[in-house]
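== Polypeptide entry ==
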Amino acid sequence: MIFKTIQKVIRHSVLCHPIICRPNRLLSASLSSPVHQTIFKNLFSTMSYYIEERGSPNTLDYKVYIKNENGVVSPFHDIPLLADTSGKVFNMVVEIPRWTNAKMEINTKAALNPIIQDTKKGKLRFVPNVFPHKGYIWNYGAFPQTWENPEVLDEHTGCKGDNDPLDVLEIGYKVAKRGEILKVKVLGTVALIDEGETDWKVLVINVDDPIAPEVNDIKDIEKHFPGLLKATVEWLKIYKIPDGKPENKFAFNGEPKNAEFALKIISDAHEYWKGLVQKENSEELSCVNTTLNNTASIGNDKVQAILSESLPFSEPSPLLPEVDKWFFIKSNGMIFKL
């Protein structure tokens, strides 16, 4: 089945957004690919997910926890990678809705891995608007139960992993919501080298997007979304320049790879994640979870204790006008801003 995501808002003393998944239409399953078979061996989920916000948006105290009908779950460890029985539809955790600037990310170091806003020198981080782009040009997020291993040298990039879940760029028409769990299919990947670390960007589309049946591989992106692949590589290449950093580099000269290649990257990252959660000591990363039934699993009492350390949800703090500033970059790397 493909699942359609619907979200409505209910406010309590904290804010909870139900994300309800229901059957939509049949997807013909073909599991002949060895990569599909490897991933398919793991459990999939048709669970409904919600968010619970704590603290005030646009502050250091803001956190987004993910919940299902049984309580809080870790978006890093508890949400299954697969979304259905076909082996082709994956769960994506949305961290950053399209057109927004706040650099939100799964906090891999905190128990239960809430989504928080990244910081730089103690200040909230916002991605600059590099003309002609406004914020993120896709719905940006991560695949659960994946990990780019910082101890392994990637054969394609020659660099070690960045110690995070795999990044996902969703290209459908709908602007997603922070913390939403999308059902997506894989189209391809770009091999970014970010400050000397491997940082794969997997291109996907929401399976409920009207054009999704026609978009199945990297070549279909150029056909149905002309210019988006070029803009994606450009965005990833230059987005850190306004912060005083050099252009990012790519393996394969920035050429996007196809869906089958991307599925192998996902399969490898899932295997690295399985090794991570089996470690007795995962060093800086938190493997605390509520569903895996391993030594890092915790019950509701400990979950509530973790939540109690966060402030109750409150109204967003106003954004500084600088967040909307334009940056213009010449071919020689010179920066102009308005």
In short: Confidence is low (pLDDT under 50) at residues 1-42.
